Amino acid sequence: MDSSSCIDESSASSDAGAAILSPSPTPPSPPPPLQRMGSGTSTLTIAESSSESRKLPSSQYKGVVPQPNGRWGAQIYEKHQRVWLGTFNLEREAACAYDAAAQRFRGRDAATNFPPLSPDAHELAFLHARSKAEVVDMLRKHTYLDELHHSRLRLSPPPSFLPSASKPPREHLFDKSVTPSDVGKLNRLVIPKQQAEKHFSLPGVVGGEGAKGLLLSFEDGVGKVWRFRYSYWNSSQSYVLTKGWSRFVKEKGLKAGDTVGFYRSKGGDGQLYIECRIRAAVGGVVSPAKVFRLFGVDIMKAAVGANENGKRGLEALEAAMSGPGSAGWFKKQCVVGM
DNA sequence: AATTGTGTTGAC
DNA sequence: TCAACACAATTG
């Protein structure tokens, strides 16, 4: 049941001694006009107005292909076989996804759409610290930036200001006693409508066409990061955690009656945590429903709010990327390398 | 039903 | 290697 990508994870990373820490302040510079290389094959004549043009517009970026629905796909070739890097709303996102893959697959000399990463870029070390398959996975799940974010936090030098407690302060949000369907084949965790609407009000989630949802990251008891898609099901009119949930259930061995707790860091980062308490089943019957405790956190607010500080905007970006004009990706990557 | 991602082919 | 095109497999 391993859903590993079609890439092999060979090619040992031999340049592990490049763990540099460069404080790049991520300039909020807008997406720079692409500096393309000589690759005159772009016929950028958007004639979408002409009725139903079944001809999809070619992308001016390398490794980017148009999708029937107007989005863009990213792909790279390796050993005569295509490696799909996912679909994106913006060409730039797809192009940058390709760039990331290219640098991981073919090294820094790889031809890229945007200026390559500087030798001391965080991304470079980050990329090569992971297998190709994992990089591809992050790209496909649009998780790249988020993982990078977490990675950076881990590497960030402890200012010795850490609280006395060994673990960062976190507040309990609520518990959910999982139902049979929560751990069944439906691959979803239902979040009570009341709770969801009160604390997870997400613009666009309930919209008629906005069944896209939002990606949320949780850290479990052992420090592993889990990402779930939070969305609204029109059919059942319920809020659910879908993508990624089944994996969590499987790995944790969750069973009906077990309790899953949700927490949130009291810090400004609003980091979310998830923990599961496996009920010691002694052959007996699991206890029915439990209670949902409310909590005071607004995901959107946490993400956007943090952005006003100018720093940690990745979470906000992540949320923003769910919408139409999302140009948040690789804000930095496209500028580095001058 | 809507989208993604693969099969496949032909050009570079 | 690369991308255009068609379409089957998935997902919401």
What does this entry look like structurally?
It is a single chain. 30% of the residues are buried. Strand 1 (64-66) and strand 2 form a beta hairpin. This protein has helices at residues 91-106, 122-128, 132-140, 144-155, 193-199, 245-252, 299-307, 314-320; strands spanning 64-66, 72-78, 81-88, 170-177, 189-191, 214-219, 225-233, 238-241, 259-265, 272-277. A seven-stranded mixed sheet has the order 4-9-10-6-7-8-5. The chain has a three-stranded antiparallel sheet with strand order 1-2-3. The model is unreliable at 1-52, 160-165 and 283-338 (pLDDT under 50). It starts with 63 loop residues before the first strand and ends in an 18-residue tail after the last helix. The chain is globular, with a radius of gyration of 22 Å. The protein is 22% helix and 18% strand. It binds a DNA duplex (12 and 12 nucleotides) through residues 41, 54-56, 58-59, 62-69, 71, 73, 75-78, 80, 82, 84, 86-87, 211-213, 231, 233-235, 242-243. Residues 38-48 have a biased composition (Polar residues). Its main location: nucleus.
Radius of gyration: 22 Å
Mean pLDDT: 66
Q: What fraction of the residues are assigned to beta strands by DSSP?
A: 15-25%
Structural class: alpha+beta
Helix content: 10-25%
Strand order of the largest sheet: 4-9-10-6-7-8-5
Shape: globular
What is the tally of helical segments?
A: 8
- Taking pLDDT < 50 over at least 5 consecutive residues as the criterion, the unreliable ranges are 1-52, 160-165, 283-338
End-to-end distance:
44 Å
